[in-house]
Design goal:
Blueprint lengths: L1 H10 L3 E8 L4 E8 L10 E3 L3 H9 L3 E3 L6 H6 L2 H5 L4 E9 L2 E10 L7 H24 L1
Antiparallel strand pairs: 1-2, 1-6, 2-3, 4-5, 5-6
Helix pairs in contact: 1-5
Length: 141
């Protein structure tokens, strides 16, 4: 997805991905990624509330894991996607549509870094754009 590649470029990140919330199974499934080391993400499933992406889907707020975060190393180890993609720093933002969480946008770096306010705003704005794209796609089905 070209939008994810642009996001990596704008935020100087290595990896960007979209996870979709599947309400029936209470799972989150990875759909698209840019900058992936492999395709392991395609087979990953996550329950609501567990790990980085699950917590974002459950609570509907941005979560940042970087060197400024408390327990950053522990939180990295609890995130299968961060382990599989060798991410040291990440931001996960909810993708909201009509006040419902339909997915999670994850952006990460394989180097230790701290995401600044401009990066956070860029990711938040893009999460909104992705929500509209997903809604448009669903209306065509």
């Amino acid at each position: 997805m070209e939008i994810l590649e642009e996001l990596n470029s704008k935020t100087s990140s290595d990896f960007a991905a979209i996870a979709i919330v599947v309400p029936i199974s209470h799972q989150i499934c990875w759909r698209e990624a840019a900058g992936s080391l492999n395709e392991k993400y395609k087979n990953m499933r996550k329950k609501y509330g567990s790990g980085l992406v699950g917590a974002v889907a459950r609570h509907g707020r941005i979560i940042i894991i970087d060197d400024s975060s408390a327990n950053a190393e522990k939180r990295r180890l609890e995130s299968p996607i961060m382990l599989a993609e060798q991410l040291q720093s990440a931001i996960a933002a909810p993708i909201l549509l009509n006040n419902s969480i339909v997915g999670v946008l994850l952006v990460g770096s394989r180097n230790n870094r701290i995401y600044n306010e401009q990066d956070i705003q860029t990711i938040t704005n893009l999460a909104g754009e992705i929500a509209l794209l997903l809604d448009e796609e669903n209306s065509k089905k």
